[in-house]
Amino acid sequence: MVLNNIEKLLKKYENGETTIKEEQVLKNYFSSDTVAPHLEMYKPMFDYFLVNQQEQFTKDIPLNTKRIFNYKWISVAAVAVLMLGFYFSNSFNSDLGTYSESEKELAYNEVVKSLEMISSHFNKGTSTVGYLNEVNKGTSALGYLNEIDNTTSIIFKN
Amino acid sequence: MTQSEFLNIVMPFKDKVFRLAKRLLVSTEEAEDATQEVLLKLWNNKAKIAEYKNVEAFSMTMTKNFCFDKLKSKQAQNLKIVHSNYEDKQTALQKQVELNDSVSWVAKIIEDLPEQQKLIIQLRDIEEYDYDEIAKMLDMNNTAVRVNLSRARKTIREKLTNTHNYGIK
Predict the structure, then answer these.
(1) Would you say the pTM of this structure is higher than 0.80?
(2) Number of helices (H), then strands (E), in chain B
(3) Is A45 an 8 Å CB contact of chain B?
(4) Average pLDDT for residues A24-50, to the nearest whole number?
């Protein structure tokens, strides 16, 4: 009687007409030890379904609650920096007014003197570097060595 | 939405997502990656979760699409590692053991099914969704799901009968 029922269910099952409950009945039947010999080939199929239901996802999910950086705040900071900059630069300029005319001229002369000294030293440096041209000449003369190489290679070929 | 709220929604079906990915991608590692990717996508769109009618069905569809994309990109790379050029006794032995193990036969048979049928077998026989849900997930109609399912089941049964009778008849 039970067997008859199972066979009917199997037919329905193959046609895709069984309900979940009926499939449950089939799964229960085939997971038991009393499977009729002529239906034994179905057993591994239902076993496989049952085994596969147990597989689990064990890796953890990296849910980082990253806060999205708000670019508005950058502009606010930039404006603040600019304002501070203007404020301080104005105050520095006003400091210049405390020097007298003669002091300013003295400072100017000092600066000119030191710049002149730098330029003169610099020129000396460049004139010594001029000798490097000689080196270039030397290397061009060495180029003739290639000719020797050519001839030697010809000799060795023979 | 806080993390724990999100996890409460996701926990019940994360294994199903993983098994579906594994059915399609075969390798466990790839399936794990795919599951992570799908869940992260959900998390990033958590503001919209309330709008979805059925988060579970939605994520299953997402998984299916993600896996198909992965498979396609793999084919596009045209890089297949086929190790048919070496042979040793160990693999032969292992194969023999496998042949005896009829449950793994089923795995192999299912692996050979067309993708659509693989999906449907997975969703119906392993995850036990009803036909309407499957139809929605796969964007098919109800009868098409049944037809595909019936074909898949018949193929599995035929192949199993063949292997079962092998050596007897």
Answers:
(1) no
(2) 8, 0
(3) yes
(4) 83
